[in-house]
Amino acid sequence: MSNTEVLSLFPETAASLGGRLSIGGVAASELAATYGTPLLVYDEATIRSSARAYRAAAPNVHIHFGSKAFPNVEVLRILREEGIGADVASLGELAFAQRAGYTGAEIVVHGNNKSDAELAAAAAVGALVAIDSLEELDRAKAAGIERGILRITPGIDADTHEAIRTAHHGSKFGVPPEVALDAIRHAPWLEGLHTHIGSQLFDAGAALMTADWIAAFAARARTETGWTPKTIDIGGGLGVATAPEDPRPSIHDFAGQVAAELERAWAEHGLPPVAVMMEPGRSLVGRAGVTLYSVGTVKQAADGTTYVAVDGGMSDNPRRALYQARYTAVLADRVDDETVGRFTVAGKHCESGDVLIDRVELPEPHRGDVLAVPATGAYTLSMASNYNALLRPAAVLVADGHARLIRRRETLDDLFALES
After folding, report:
1. Are residues 190 and 257 in the same domain?
2. What is the CATH number for 138?
3. Which of 45, 141, 184, 406 is deepest in the core (most CB within 10 A)?
4. Are 22 and 93 contained in the same domain?
5. Same domain for 362 and 405?
6. Same domain, 401 and 364
7. Residue 154 sits in the same domain as residue 52
């Protein structure tokens, strides 16, 4: 595994300068010394580049950031500056979007079990709401929702981990086609349709199938109910390489192909013009993020495995435990050194499943080294916990040789703030 292969997983500005990892013009080890570890480092240039890639690939498509990937006010502000809307799925995510300056039509509200309070909040800001069930239709109307799209389940199995497939038969999200037709008859005020097939997709195959399917369904709905959608939300799901062996999907290719296929299928069915939306999350911020850890104990187990223990683990990145996600790493101040063997990177939590990386080639690791894990910008800190009463990490944004704190590290006082 070459340095070039590994560094290609890091943010666009990452480089080895004299063997020291630099991100956004700042040495990773200096960031660790200043802000402590674990630390999530976001590269502003990579976030902006990803946003611009979507807009260039699909200029006529409204792009909304799946904020569940990393709800953070400053990151949302950057994306809003780049013309990206916000996709939210809770009162909390809606509050983040509003704090970042989003209003009205810039926001899409999702969720398979929206509370009355969430519907009321969506109505208050004039957001577009993805209706997830027949039961929700009447509650949404009663709450004052004026713009709604119906989430539909096409029965397409995305090639991804089963836990992050969302459009298969039996999914908890959306409604089946026959129920969708009943919903349209019951609520002709609906302005469109939504579907999302899953997350961490490495090719456009299933998404292209979905574009064809939803166009065919829209044509069927027109025939059987006289209703035609004005808006189509085709979802998101593009993956990010987190290990050298992963494919490297292109934002430009994925978004461009899906937008073109939907346009082609729409025309084939003779449907009237429609506004199109996409909801990428991981692919906007995943590569932009790097997690820095401090190495602690290094020891060999009876089976010959050499463990490198770090000061975080499944509390700041549960993806390996939940989805068997693969990662790699470098020693931040010895990027160019020869590797001496394969090591297993373990967290400090009280269970054997707390392993971040099964095998990674490294120079000889020592206590106090800074370990940098790339492609951790999505679904890590947003899914973090206080397991073992560990404190959630800080996050910094780097650009042009400067770093600034965008989320402070938790303190012990934060842990006790909710105790009675």
Report:
1. yes
2. 3.20.20.10
3. 184
4. no
5. yes
6. yes
7. yes
Closest CA to 60 of 276, 329, 262: 276
Last residue of a domain, one of 285, 311, 328: 285
**Which residues in the chain come in under a pLDDT of 50?**
158-161, 163-165, 167-168
Q: How many structural domains compose the chain?
A: 2
The counts of H helices and E strands in the chain are 13, 20
What is the pLDDT at residue 206?
85
ω into residue 38 within 30 of 0, thus cis? yes
pLDDT reported for residue 302:
87
Identify whether the C-beta of residue 149 lies closer than 8 Å to the C-beta of residue 231: yes
Catalytic residue among 302, 350, 389, 418: 350
Q: Do 313 and 200 reside in the same domain of the chain?
A: no
**195 close to 218: Cβ distance less than 8 angstroms:** no
Q: Is 350 a catalytic residue?
A: yes
Is 0.85 surpassed by the pTM of this model?
Answer: yes
Report DSSP state, residue 112.
Answer: S
Q: Please tell me the distance from the alpha carbon of residue 291 to that of residue 356, in angstroms, as a whole number.
A: 11
Q: Tokens 């509050």 correspond to what residue?
A: 95
Structural domain including 59 reads: 44-285
As a whole number of Å, the CA-based R_g of the chain is 22
Which residue, of 285, 316, 341, is where some domain finishes?
285
**Measured in whole angstroms, how far is the alpha carbon of residue 392 from the centre of its chain?**
18
3-state secondary structure 7-62: HCCCCCCCEEECCEEEECCEEHHHHHHHHCCCEEEEEHHHHHHHHHHHHHHCCCEE
State the CB neighbour count (10 A cutoff) for residue 24.
26
DSSP β-bridge partners for residue 306:
300
Tell me the DSSP string of 209-270.
HHHHHHHHHHHHHHHHHS---SEEE----B----STTS----HHHHHHHHHHHHHHHHHHTT
Residues 104 and 246 in one domain: yes
Cα–Cα separations (whole angstroms), residue 202 to 146, 147, 213, 389: 36, 32, 20, 35
Statement to judge: residues 26 and 53 lie in one domain: no
CA dist 27 and 15 (Å) reads 9
DSSP run (H or E) holding 75: helix 73-81
Place of tokens 């090591």: 343
pLDDT of the residue at 169: 59
Could you tell me where the DSSP H helices lie in 269-318?
282-285
Q: How far apart are CA 154 and CA 167, in angstroms?
A: 6
Q: What integer pLDDT is reported at residue 171 of this predicted model?
A: 64
Which residues make beta-bridge pairs with 344? 307
